[in-house]
């Protein structure tokens, strides 16, 4: 049995769309069930559903053998894992965004303070960061900050809130990550699964 940690939310939808596009029917129904259960088992693969930032924690500890996670999570924090490969879904990017008439960014709200801090440090721009846990688009709308650093995928969230993108920071993709020990001790089972879903 191998354990695969999946991210709930947008990446989960992208992963199930990838399964559908590739007719991987054996996984589609079990993974698409509308339930609050946090795991499901298909043959000898146990899938667990975790918050994005927790996926590398499960993989690092070895309770999950591999994981599928956005590169945003790996850019933001450091984990003792194997960062195995890029996956063909989950594409989006980090951007600086704000109200249309914004001329400078002195304060930025973000969930990704390390990514934002590095970006502005590299640009030699002095910015004060405010850490929020989500719905960061509210911050410039309410005057909490001049702008945000956040993930943009379709751009709909920015558009629906009257915000525009000013600077693209970095591309984001889904990544396959693995535990440093069990990736080798369970090599055959992991390889079989990855081959089956066409990512290895
Ligand atoms: C992310 C991100 C943006 C939105 C962008 O939020 O933080 O708010 O998606 O996607 P779009 O460009 O396709 O509209 P998420 O839904 O993950 O939740 P959050 O706001 O709680 O972070």
UniProtKB/TrEMBL annotation:
The protein's matches in Pfam families, at most eight in alphabetical order, are given as: HisG
Q: Where in the cell is it found?
A: Cytoplasm
Give the UniProt record's GO annotations in the biological process aspect: L-histidine biosynthetic process
- UniProt function note: Catalyzes the condensation of ATP and 5-phosphoribose 1-diphosphate to form N'-(5'-phosphoribosyl)-ATP (PR-ATP). Has a crucial role in the pathway because the rate of histidine biosynthesis seems to be controlled primarily by regulation of HisG enzymatic activity.
Give residue ranges for domain ATP phosphoribosyltransferase catalytic: 53-197
Q: What is the lineage of its organism?
A: Bacteria, Bacillati, Bacillota, Bacilli, Bacillales
Recorded GO terms, molecular function? ATP binding; ATP phosphoribosyltransferase activity
Q: What is this protein called?
A: ATP phosphoribosyltransferase
State the GO CC annotations: cytoplasm
What reactions does this protein catalyze?
Answer: 1-(5-phospho-beta-D-ribosyl)-ATP + diphosphate = 5-phospho-alpha-D-ribose 1-diphosphate + ATP
| Domain remark text | Lacks the C-terminal regulatory region which is replaced by HisZ.
List the gene name: hisG
């Amino acid at each position: 049995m191998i354990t695969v940690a999946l991210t709930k939310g947008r990446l989960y939808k992208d992963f199930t769309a990838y399964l559908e596009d590739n007719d991987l029917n054996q996984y589609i129904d079990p993974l698409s069930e509308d339930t609050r259960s946090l795991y499901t088992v298909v043959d000898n693969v146990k899938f667990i559903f975790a918050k994005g930032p927790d996926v590398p924690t499960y993989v690092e500890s070895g309770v999950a053998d591999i994981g599928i996670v956005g590169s945003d999570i790996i850019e933001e924090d450091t984990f003792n894992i194997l960062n195995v490969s890029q996956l063909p879904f989950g594409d989006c990017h980090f951007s600086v965004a704000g109200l249309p008439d914004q001329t400078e960014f002195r304060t930025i709200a973000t969930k990704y303070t390390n990514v934002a801090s590095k970006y502005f440090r590299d640009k030699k721009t002095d910015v004060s960061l405010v850490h929020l846990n989500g719905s960061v688009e509210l911050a410039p709308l309410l005057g909490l900050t001049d702008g945000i650093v956040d993930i943009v995928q379709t751009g709909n969230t920015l558009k629906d809130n009257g915000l525009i993108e000013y600077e693209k920071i970095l591309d984001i993709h889904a990544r396959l990550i693995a535990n440093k020990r069990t990736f080798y001790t369970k090599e055959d089972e992991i390889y079989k699964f990855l081959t089956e879903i066409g990512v290895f």
